[in-house]
Design goal:
single chain
Amino acid sequence: MSDDDDAECPTTVCPSDDASREPRARGQRMTTTVHEDDDDDAVTRRRRRVSHIIAHHRQVDRAKRRHMVFTVTIVFFSRSARLVTAANVIAEGARAVEGCQCNVFRVRDVIRDEEDVRTYDRGILDCPVVTLDDIAQSDAIIFGAPTRYGRLAPELSAFFDKLSTFHEEGCALKGKIGSAFTEVGGPGHGYGGHEATLVTIHALFLQHGMVTVGVPPLPPLEATPNASVFGTALRSTVKSGAPLDFESNSIASRVRELNEAEVKIAYAQGEWVSLIAKQLHDDGAIA
């Protein structure tokens, strides 16, 4: 199959390994109580909450290590099903490694809210929303979001701001694996800049003391537009003037299947991240 041929790949959100879990209320796993007369401000309360999460999951990590199970978490923001498809392919690559528990989450849009569901491709909003708890229990985290005019989508950037509490708590993400993917191009999003977006996400990993992993060198990189070892970078297929179909809740060209080369690169990235996470986890390098 040529790079331009479409490969059969699902565009719906892939369920997480623990997708059957009941939605939990925030703080469900915590025992810390904040009294009404507590004078601590919101920042201090959040620090206490994250401290409890960290302590809890260090105990969980020790138990997981005894059973050689490790967790890869994929976190995305997108209104396009193509980027979600990439997340699912990356997840399949990760799950190919023995012992991997892989979950896929989305970031809630805190900038423009999510009231107009017509702006999202069908199925995206059905994906569970990521929490700080999910981040804390991960051995590897793969973030994905569109590139807009040469920069990272602000919706994911806003979520990154919430991770600062981990940094304040003694770099609690130190030693975890970090990786990234993106989609670039198309009317209303600008052109190029995908590597700048991927490097921006890598910079976040370095600030937290995480181990940055990209795409392993492989032949499809040589023949794929926008290919980069920094992470999977999809080429947008939205055509100028393409009308939004409110009945199907999608733009037809936007949910096109990934081509063969894009699938190979995304799968390889997930598998590569998982292999390294397994090695570090089994050796006890990931706390």
